[in-house]
Design brief:
Length: about 350
């Protein structure tokens, strides 16, 4: 084991001290949360540890293939109590915000279970674990895990590589977002060396949409609003639209990213009201405007260029809380660098 960072050493020591682990991630888990759980679970199991995964939310269908080798349990009060009692330690992946693990969070107040956090979000950077490995410069939580695994030579298998690749591919928007750097590409290249098929893995995640989902995207996109001289795109999705197309909140995944392709756009915001009175705000920047603090001031969080927050109230109220600040930030950008190319 060759850990250089003190947090990495602490993490390995944490693993060495315990035998039975419970893993969890944030609500509405994405490819990074689920891929990281699958990878760490396989890795720990191979080292003779007992591992369970328990999440607040179900695994979305496009990630069901990750459950070939690992079981993802969904929160139930009785099961959660039981899993916390059985486990020697809890490892929280892809969030360092305690509330974001959902219904498991209040149960933690009643236990003394040791907690480790592995995450790459900028908000809440101190973490709530006894051990915190939080690296905002990492493209994905899976990238941090890969580094940790490689410190124990010969422990990465094809199944682990696949789960880590899913984490990296999804969090970098298939290697397109601003967090895609040489490190991410080197990691991808190394993972492919385990025999992965990138085209098949991309299709497994991204070629799973229903026709209804595309029609819904079409409807929302055809009603897109431009503001601040075409530099801000505002999208709006109503409860009635989710119902009519038979969709759930997770089905908006990828929608907010599409208007990034419009020339001159600095930011995109989606106000998604899945159920009346609950508005999920998704914010994206094309690289110049920092939007994480807009989300964190309202109780959410995320990364500099991709962040979100869940707001109670109407869409009009949510717009009122988000848009003035977002517009101001875009207007304040230096004009000379307006055209990115
Ligand atoms: P999304 O818009 O859901 O794709 O989320 C973009 C980023 O913001 C992800 O890194 C999320 O972890 C983060 N994020 C989204 N919603 C919240 C929230 N309610 N609280 C904290 N972080 C969030
Ligand atoms: Mn995530
Ligand atoms: Mn992530």
């Amino acid at each position: 084991m060759s850990a250089e960072r003190p947090e990495h050493r602490q993490f390995h020591d944490f693993l060495a001290r315990h035998r039975t682990f419970l893993l969890t991630t944030h609500i509405n888990p994405d490819g990074d949360g689920l891929g990281s759980e699958a990878a760490l679970s396989l890795w720990l199991s191979a080292q003779g540890r007992r591992v369970r995964i328990l999440n607040d939310s179900v695994v979305p269908p496009q990630f069901a293939f990750l459950a070939r080798h690992t079981v993802f349990e969904v929160f139930d009060p009785g099961v959660a109590e039981q899993r916390l009692v059985e486990a020697d330690a809890l490892i929280v992946l892809d969030t360092s915000n305690r509330q974001r693990i959902g219904r498991l969070a209040p149960l933690l107040d009643r236990t003394t279970i040791p907690v480790a956090v592995v995450d790459h979000h900028v908000s809440h950077a101190r973490g709530f674990g006894h051990v915190n490995v939080i690296e905002p410069e990492a493209s994905a939580t899976g990238e941090i895990l890969f580094e940790l695994f490689r410190q124990v030579p010969g422990t990465v298998t094809e199944e682990i590589a696949e789960a880590l690749y899913i984490a990296l591919m999804t969090d970098t928007g298939s290697f397109r977002y601003s967090n895609t750097d040489t490190h991410a590409h080197r990691m991808a290249a190394e993972l492919l060396g385990y025999g992965l098929d990138p085209q098949r893995l991309w299709s497994q995640v991204h070629a799973q949409a229903s026709a209804g989902r595309l029609r819904f995207f079409g409807e929302v996109l055809s009603a897109l609003e431009l503001d601040v001289d075409g530099r801000l795109v505002v999208l709006d999705a109503r409860p009635e639209q989710f119902q009519r197309h038979g969709l759930v909140g997770a089905d908006t995944d990828g929608l907010v990213d599409m208007p990034r392709s419009i020339v001159g756009v600095e930011a995109v915001v989606l106000f998604s009201e899945v159920e009346p009175g609950k508005v999920k705000v998704s914010l994206r920047s094309t690289g110049r405007v920092a939007i994480d603090t807009i989300a964190s001031k309202l109780g959410g969080g995320g990364h500099v260029h991709a962040a979100g927050v869940l707001l109670r109230g109407t869409r009009a109220e949510a717009r009122e809380r988000v848009l003035p600040e977002l517009k101001k930030r875009i207007e304040e950008l230096p004009a000379d660098a307006r055209v990115a190319w």
